[in-house]
Amino acid sequence: MAETSPTLLPEALRAAAAEIEHALDTLLPAEEGAEARLYAAMRHAALGGGKRMRGFLVLEGAAQFGVSRTSALRVAAAIEMLHAYSLVHDDLPAMDNDDMRRGKPTVHKAFDEATAILAGDALQAQAFAVLAHEDTHSDPAVRAELCLRLALAAGPRGMCGGQMLDMLAEDGTEPPTEAGIGRLQLLKTGKLIEFSAEAGAVLGKAPGQQRHALCAYGRELGAAFQIADDILDATASEAETGKRTGKDAEAGKATLVGLLGLERARAQAERLAAQARAHLDSFGERADLLRMLADYTIARRS
Question: Which residues cross the membrane (predicted)?
C-alpha cells in the first residue's frame, strides 16, 4: 500500500456520508397529508447520523469498476435504508428495548411503537423500490440481482435469521460456543456488510474472481466489525457511541468478548482485519481506502 495521509480515510468517510445523506434526503422526501407522520418517522430513522460504512463499501466497490456515482449512491442509499429498518425494529421493546440511537431518541420513543413498526416496514420496501428502479442501472438483470442479493442478505438466512439466533441465545439453555457466536454474527451483521462490499461489483458486472474477492473482504470485515462493536459495548461510554452501552452483558447476550475475554477478542478482530486486507491484493493501490477501512473498523470508538 502506498504511503497515505492519516486523514485520508476520515475525510473520505465524511465526504461519502454527506453524499449518502443527500441521496437519502432525496429518496425519502418529506410528505404532506395523511402519510406525513410515517415519512417523518422514516426520515428520523434514516437521516442525521451513522457511520454509513455499508454505503461507503458500495461506493468504493463501485469505484473499482468505473460505475457511475449516481448508480452507486442509489444502491448505497437503499442498503442504508434497509439497515435503518433493522435498527428501528431492533430497538423496539420486544427486541433490545433501547431508548437512544445515534445520539437521539429511537423511533418508538420519538413517535410510538406502531409508527416505528410501520416506518421499519416502509424503509425496507423503499430499499427494494430504489434498487428495482431503472435509474439505478440500465440493465434489468443487474437490478434484479441487486434485489435478490439484498433479500438474501436480509432474510431468514441473513440478518433476520441472525436476530432470531441472538434472541434464542439469550435464554441461556445452551452454553455459547465460538462457532455458534460466529455463525450468529455472520448472519445478523456480516451478510449485509458482505453484500455491501459486493454490490459495486454487481453494478460493474465485474469478473467472478474480483467479485469473489470483494465478497470475501466484506465477510472478514463484517466479522471484525461485530467483534469491535461488542468490545465497544463492553468498554466505551454512551457519549462515545451515541447509544446505551453495557447492554450485552446485562442481557446475557452471547458475544466473543463474553466468551473469550477482551484481549483474545481483540486479537481475533485484528486477525480478521488482516485477512480482509489480504483479499484486496489483486486491486492494487485503488483499493487503499478499503484496506484502511479494515484497520479503522477495529480501532474506532463509536
Answer: none
